[in-house]
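Exercise (ungraded).
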Amino acid sequence: MKKFMNNVDDLLAESLDGFADAHSDIVTLGDDRKFVRRAALSPGKVALISGGGTGHEPLHAGLIGHGMLDAACPGQVFTSPTPDQMLAAAEAVDDGTGILFIVKNYEGDVMNFEMAAEMSDREIMTVITNDDVAVETSTFSTGRRGVAGTLVVEKIVGAAAEAGRSLADLKVLGDRVNAATRSMGVALTSCTVPAAGTPTFTLADDEMEMGVGIHGEPGRRRVPLEPVDAIAEEMVPAITAELPGVDVLLFVNGFGGTPLMELYLMYHAARASLEERGFRIHRSLVGNFVTSLEMAGCSITATSLDDEMTGLWDAPVHTPALRWGM
Amino acid sequence: MKKFMNNVDDLLAESLDGFADAHSDIVTLGDDRKFVRRAALSPGKVALISGGGTGHEPLHAGLIGHGMLDAACPGQVFTSPTPDQMLAAAEAVDDGTGILFIVKNYEGDVMNFEMAAEMSDREIMTVITNDDVAVETSTFSTGRRGVAGTLVVEKIVGAAAEAGRSLADLKVLGDRVNAATRSMGVALTSCTVPAAGTPTFTLADDEMEMGVGIHGEPGRRRVPLEPVDAIAEEMVPAITAELPGVDVLLFVNGFGGTPLMELYLMYHAARASLEERGFRIHRSLVGNFVTSLEMAGCSITATSLDDEMTGLWDAPVHTPALRWGM
C-alpha cells in the first residue's frame, strides 16, 4: 500500500485539519472533529446536514458552503459516522428553523442518521438517496445504493434552502430530485482501504467491474474491458430506463484514479449515446466529486431537469469543490 | 494498459470534443482542434495563450476563461503543440492589443512557441516558467522544468490582463511571479502514456521518486517511501531556499492518481513545515490541477505573495477548473 500518510490512526484527523485550514474562509471544524460546518451560518434557513464514510472526497465536506450543505459528518474510511456526530452537528448549525438530513442509502448510514433524528429534540426530516441502478441490493445496502447523484440532490436542495424554503418543501424536493436521478459506475482497478492495506478486490488486466459501488462493492458482472463507446452504450440505457424527462443533467464522475482526459472521453461517449436516444444535454458536470479513494473508473449520472430544478442547479454556490455564480 | 478510450489515435480529438461540449458556456474549439479558446473574447485586452502536451489536465485548456487564459494549444500526450497551432490561436484571439505566451520550460514547447512568435506579424512576448527546483536539467529541459507553478503565473497574469494592463507590464509581472514561485514533486507510481502502453518507469512497492517531473522524468533520487511528514520535511526546504518573502501561497497539486484525502494530508504536513520555518500561509490551493495522467503523487508549490499579487490571485476567475468571485 502506497499512500501519503503518517499512520492509519491519524489519517482522518490530519486530513480534516488540512482541509479546514485550506478552506478556512468557508468551513470550520467542530469539537473533536465530529463534523465540518460552514464558518458563517445563515439565520432563518433550514440546515442541510449530510455525511458518511471518508474516502469519497470531496463529497461531503467539500460541498459545504453557500448554496449547499451546512455541515457534514465524516466517518472513518468507508465507515458510517456515529449518531453523536450528527447530534453535535445539529446543535451547531440549526437555529430552530429545522434540519434536513441527506443520507446515501447504506445500512449503517441510514441507521445512524435515523438514531440521531430520534435522539434529537429538533425538527428533522431525511432524504435518502438511492440513485445507483446497477444492483437492487448490495453488500452494504438494502435497496439501491446512493452514489454520485447525491451531489445533485445536495446542490438543488441546497439552493432551495438558501432561498428560504420550508423543511417540508425541501424534503419533497429532495425526494423528487432523487427520483429523477440515476447513476451507474464502472471500475478498472480496485481501491485500497488504508486500514486493510490490500486492494478491496482484484481485476485482471483486461477486466472491468460493470456496476461497481463506491466502496468497491460488486456490480452486475465482471467483463472484458471494452472501448469507451461500448461501455457508455451499456450504461446509458440502464440509467435512462425510467427517467421522467428528456432534458438532462449529465454528470460524469471520476472515482479518483482516472485522469480528467478519460473522463471527458467518457462524457463524449455518454453524451452521444444519450442524444441518440432523444435526450437533450441541458447541463453538464465532469470531474472527481464522489470518489472511491484511488479507484480507477467512473460513474455516469443523469438527472431529468425541469425548469425549477434547472434554476436551482444554476443558482450561486460557493463550496471548496463546487463554485459558480459568486 | 487500462484506460477509457476507443483507440489511441482518436483519444485527443474525442477528449477535446467532450471538453468543449461540457464547457460550451466558457470555451469553444478552433478549426481542426488546433486550439481551445474563450467563447467570448474581451476586446482591448492582451491575449494570454498557453499550451503544451496533453496529459496534464485541467492545465491548460481547463484554465481558459475570464481572468485567466484566452486560448490553449493542446499537443498529443506529453508532446509539444506545433507552431501552426499557436499561430492559429493567435489569429483567433488577438485583436491587435498583443499576445503573451506562457510556456513551461521544455525544449519542444519553448522551441515551438518561439518559432510561432517569429512567424507571426503580431506583437508577442513570452514568459517561460521554470518553477521546479528538483533538478537543474532534465530529460526534456535545459534548466529547471516548468510545472504546477505555471498555474499561479497564469492566474495572476490573467487577472492583470483582465484589468487592462499592457503587454510589457504583463511580461514583467509574469517573470516576477515565476521568480517568486518554487515547486517540487514526488511520485508513488508511474503513469502510462497511451501510445506507449506500458508504464513510463517502475517503482518498487516501498519506493518513491523524489523530485519527479510531470512526465515521469527522473527526479533527485529514488528513496524508500516515508511518512508524509518526512516527505514534506524534505520538499519544503528545497522550495523555500530562495523564496523572496514569507507570506506564501501554498499549492498542493495532485498528479492525478492520489485521492484528495491524501492531498489534504500533504497540505497539512507542508503547512506545518512552512510555519515552523517562519512562513505564513496567506492563500491555499489543493487539488488535481497540473497532472501526469494517472500518476500517484503530488507536488508542493510555494509562491511569495506581495499585496499586488495577492489582489490579482483573489480577483474573479471563471474557467472550467478554477472559479471564484463570479
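Further reading is listed at the end of the chapter. For now, observe: Residues 76 and 137 of chain A are 23 Å apart (CA to CA). The domain at 11-180 of chain A is CATH 3.40.50.10440 (Rossmann fold).
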